[in-house]
């Protein structure tokens, strides 16, 4: 790719759009567009832009009730697709328009840099009027013939929910019409896009899958392989760090426990390039999902995300349920390790104690640069709670805490975490607020660092505040999802990213006499 006016001596040179659109041809096109747009003058645009950075505008911004601007969340069926990808041989099927599935697939592909299999019933105008039963039956017939899944996980979109589609009866019709066999495993969840968010969709789909599998023929305690190791269910929730799933497994195996990761998409979304494409790599086996209710206990590691799943485990399975904050940092990981050791009646191995010590040592090494730094944090509620607890451990000062998809319990959880540290006194907690609210907060009460997904980068640019990327989605950086952020090892990864982001900013702004070789 070359610019309109220049050729390159390098064959097939790829130019980033940063360079392409600086070309004078494109710049002239942009300027000429103004006469057709009938927009305000540059002076008026600048005046309004400056006004949006004031306290006066902040008050008007926070007074709005019927408008959401740049919410830090996605819709329910996106979460449902991720839940399906966490199980062996499972092909997610979204009952709705083709465009919806294209969005979900591209959203995940941009984050994980991996192909994401998901099918659609491709509903159009006629299905919206007469119902989509034929679409769903045909989709299942095609999926079975072409892609040969072991299990189908069906979710819905706005169109299907508005007209009241009945997935239970439609799946029954698919069996009657022999699109799938009578005993073929199909799980389903109603996931309307116009309420909730991706974490709710993940929850109801995971509950649907576990409920369905636990009633299958494989749900037989006598079929569980005999072992001296205690079997524990670990449920990470809507966790887009494939490294976290592997870290949970590694830690529990070090402790002599047999971990069953329910919803393990680490292989599905981080597969090797070995010359062959596997449509269904890895995932929690269907047998493990079916037998999960017979294991000693289940660990819920995202309280807000997994409410429905927790109800299934507690009320239907009648299994011991351990609900913890996501184990990020020293305190969070200590609580997780202690709870696993107590539940499984095992000892904490020396290796984990060493890892804890290394993290504490690293925090000590970096303390001078992170201590007292003011931060703003935004993202999904469970991640935000855990990250806040971690930055408090580091002696950082959380100032603005925003979670668009938080529920009524979020503020109480945050206040509990903040009150446990003297560094939490300056924080304000903003559930159900969006990133346009956060923009006002950062302009009027500046911070040293933003912590959150790629979606915060525009706030960072406008306010000249560095961004440490963590969470979902992250489209503009590579491979972050491959490394854990949970456990002592994950805490070290987080600390490394945080302190080096701060050091990068110090170097960027350093005068000549302070451009140090040693920090």
How would you describe what is shown here?
- The chain is of the alpha/beta class and 519 residues long.
- Helix content is 47%, strand content 11%.
- It has a five-stranded parallel beta sheet with strand order 11-10-9-12-13, sandwiched between helices. A four-stranded parallel beta sheet has the order 2-1-3-4, with helices on both faces.
- Strand 12, helix 20 and strand 13 form a beta-alpha-beta unit.
- Helix 11 runs parallel beside helix 14 and helix 17 packs parallel to helix 18.
- The chain starts with 16 loop residues before the first helix and ends in a 10-residue tail after the last helix.
- The relative contact order is 0.10.
- The N terminus is likely disordered.
Low-confidence stretches: 1-5
Secondary structural class:
alpha/beta
Characterize the largest beta sheet: strand count, sense, and whether it forms a barrel.
Answer: 5 strands, parallel
Mean pLDDT: 95
Total number of strands:
13
Q: Mind telling me the C-alpha Rg?
A: 25 Å
Q: What level of helicity do the residues show?
A: 40-55%
Q: Report the span from N to C terminus.
A: 41 Å
Strand-residue fraction? 5-15%
Strand order of the largest sheet: 11-10-9-12-13
Overall shape: globular
Q: How large is the count of helical segments?
A: 21
What descriptors fit this protein?
519 residues, 4-stranded parallel beta sheet, 13 strands, single chain, alpha/beta, disordered N terminus, 5-stranded parallel beta sheet
Q: How would you concisely characterize the structure shown here?
A:
The chain is an alpha/beta fold and 519 residues long.
């Amino acid at each position: 790719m070359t610019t309109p006016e220049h050729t390159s001596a390098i064959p097939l040179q790829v130019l980033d759009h940063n360079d392409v659109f600086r070309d004078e041809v494109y710049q002239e096109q942009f300027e000429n567009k103004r006469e057709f747009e009938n927009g305000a003058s540059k002076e008026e645009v600048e005046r309004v832009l400056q006004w949006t950075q004031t306290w006066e505008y902040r008050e008007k911004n926070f007074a709005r009730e019927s408008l959401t601007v740049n919410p830090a969340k996605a819709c329910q069926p996106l979460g449902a697709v991720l839940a399906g990808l966490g199980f062996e041989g499972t092909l997610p099927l979204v009952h709705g328009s083709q465009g919806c599935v294209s969005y979900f697939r591209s959203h995940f592909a941009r984050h994980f840099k991996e192909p994401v299999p998901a099918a659609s019933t491709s509903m159009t105008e006629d299905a919206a009027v007469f119902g989509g039963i034929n679409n769903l039956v045909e989709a299942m017939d095609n999926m079975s013939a072409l892609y040969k899944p072991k299990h189908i996980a069906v979710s819905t979109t706005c169109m299907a929910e508005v007209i009241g589609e009945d997935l239970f009866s439609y799946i029954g019709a698919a069996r009657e019409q022999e699109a799938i066999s009578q005993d073929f495993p199909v799980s389903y969840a109603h996931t309307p896009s116009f309420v909730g968010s991706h974490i709710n969709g993940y929850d109801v789909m995971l509950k649907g899958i576990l409920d369905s599998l636990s009633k299958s023929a494989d749900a037989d305690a006598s079929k569980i392989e005999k072992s001296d190791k205690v079997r524990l269910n670990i449920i990470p929730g809507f966790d887009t760090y494939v490294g976290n799933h592997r870290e949970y497994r590694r830690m529990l195996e070090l402790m002599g426990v047999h971990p069953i990761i329910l919803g393990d998409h680490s292989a599905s979304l981080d597969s090797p390039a070995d010359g062959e494409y596997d449509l269904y790599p890895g995932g929690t086996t269907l047998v493990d999902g079916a037998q999960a209710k017979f294991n000693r206990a289940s660990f819920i590691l995202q309280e807000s995300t997994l409410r429905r799943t927790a109800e299934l485990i507690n009320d239907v399975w009648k299994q011991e349920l351990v609900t913890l904050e996501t184990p990020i940092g020293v305190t969070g990981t200590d609580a997780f390790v202690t709870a696993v050791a107590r539940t499984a009646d095992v000892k904490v191995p020396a290796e984990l104690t060493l890892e804890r010590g290394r993290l504490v040592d690293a925090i000590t090494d970096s303390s001078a640069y992170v201590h007292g730094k003011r931060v703003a944090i935004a993202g999904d509620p469970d991640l935000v709670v855990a990250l806040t607890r971690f930055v408090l451990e580091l002696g950082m000062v959380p100032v603005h805490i925003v979670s668009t998809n938080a529920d009524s319990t979020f503020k109480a959880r945050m206040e509990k975490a903040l009150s446990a540290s003297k560094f939490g006194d300056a924080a304000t907690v903003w559930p159900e607020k969006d990133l346009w609210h956060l923009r006002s907060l950062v302009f009027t009460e500046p911070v040293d660092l933003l912590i959150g997904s790629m979606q915060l980068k525009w706030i960072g640019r406008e306010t000249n505040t560095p961004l440490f990327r963590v969470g979902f989605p992250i489209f503009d950086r590579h491979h972050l999802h491959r490394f854990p952020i949970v456990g002592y090892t994950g805490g070290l990864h987080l600390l490394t990213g945080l302190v080096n982001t701060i050091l990068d900013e110090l170097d960027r702004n350093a005068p000549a006499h302070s451009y140090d070789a040693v920090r």
